[in-house]
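Hi,

Apologies if this is the wrong queue. I'm a grad student, and the batch job for DJ-1/PfpI family protein from Dyella halodurans produced an output file that my downstream script rejects. I'm not sure whether the problem is my script or the file. Here is the sequence I used:
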Amino acid sequence: MPSIDSDTHLLIGALIFEDMDQCDLTGPFEALSRVPNATFKTIAKDTTPIRDLRGLRILPDLSIEDAPQLDVLLVPGGYGQEALMDDEQVIAFLRRQARHARYIFSVCTGALLCGAAGLLEGKRATTHWTAMEVLPLFGADPVNDRVVIDGNLISTGGVTAGIDGSLTVVSLLRGNEAAEEIQLYMAYDPKTPFTAGSPETAPPRVLRTVTERAKAITERRMDTGRRYQRSRQHETSADR
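Support response: The file is valid. Your script probably expects a header line. Output copied below for reference.
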């Protein structure tokens, strides 16, 4: 049985931003845009087209200021996430939406944006494997799974895990059968040609190469996490 009556219209939105990873958006969009009796909107700081980290242009539907309260907010990741970690407008938007949304759904390093908004405190969560060590700095309990549900927070691992997470969201909104119908339409039945899809199965040389490639952004994320942790400790001390 669906958890929400099918007569209830649902509003689903995704925060988008410069240098995001478009697959964090477009993968879940394939499923979430097909939720029965629902509308999907893209939301950015303003309605200027943005470019993902590989140059794909995406046109937002709404600005943050004009965005209504959503039932589901999708928060993607990508290198551009780091530029928003201290953006007061974006952080306030995340906090405002989280107060009344049915679900906050992060993909990849979108979890870190949720962390900057204080949404990971005391929560089980996951993210891209290169950023797992950052999660505790935002008060989260890191879980090495593709999809993690803790209350109204649904977090997923790197990039393609967003598809798994989106089908999970569909099942929570409209029931398992709706999710299965969408999965079948998408022909989502992955049989990957290689075994390098996780650090546990990747050849050592491949793992070293990709880890080194992500080293600079990983260090920046760790620094941002430590800054957040220090600010929280300062707030706690001030309240005593």
